[in-house]
């Protein structure tokens, strides 16, 4: 049997299981990968919002990365919530030494609207965007990063996710320096159960790339996975409920 792709998720923990590390583990596992984690922060949250956040030390985050890479090895990395600018920089230091696909989800605001990154942490994103294979901002995150103009000035590859935009269609636009943009479009799935869509999308891309798919194919497969999980959402919680990762096996 071919060993599964080894995927390292560097992200925060979601106590309610819908987003963050928990969503990443579910996604990676269902897609046939082997999930490893470097937890950056612990959050108390549910479908209605985040009530508390405790960031781990940069040293502990680095130690988790080192433990995974030095023994099990890694085929691709997904980065999510970071928790502090110091963590952002230590993650960049560790990943600059690796030659594997890195998918960076620049998490700033939870689906519930809770703030998950301050200005200093967002400033720390620069090194990560520079080394990432792909950065995956949603509409408000792209605006904070300076929009298409700001991303073009950085010369990085990114996909502008359209789930937060208005309209009956959701368009995701892949921009690669020096190449024509690619756009995927599909009818909007009307649901309040969308907690963890960004985490799921980025970890799905990482898993597909870790098992050898090219970037465009990985994005297409990840989009299909997220849409299927949205349609299979179990309906838990009074707010923005989790996706139905379980149904995608």
Automatic annotation (TrEMBL):
InterPro entries: HMP/HMP-P_kinase_dom, PM/HMP-P_kinase-1, Ribokinase-like. It comes from the Bacteria. The keyword Mitochondrion does not apply. Pfam families: Phos_pyr_kin. Keywords: Kinase, Transferase. It is an enzyme of class 2 (transferase). Gene3D superfamilies: 3.40.1190.20. Transmembrane segments: none annotated. GO terms for molecular function: hydroxymethylpyrimidine kinase activity; phosphomethylpyrimidine kinase activity. CDD domains: HMPP_kinase. Pathway: Cofactor biosynthesis; thiamine diphosphate biosynthesis. Its EC number is 2.7.1.49. The keyword Thylakoid does not apply. Residues 14-243 form the Pyridoxamine kinase/Phosphomethylpyrimidine kinase domain. PANTHER family: HYDROXYMETHYLPYRIMIDINE_PHOSPHOMETHYLPYRIMIDINE KINASE THI20-RELATED, PHOSPHOMETHYLPYRIMIDINE KINASE. This is hydroxymethylpyrimidine kinase. The gene is thiD.
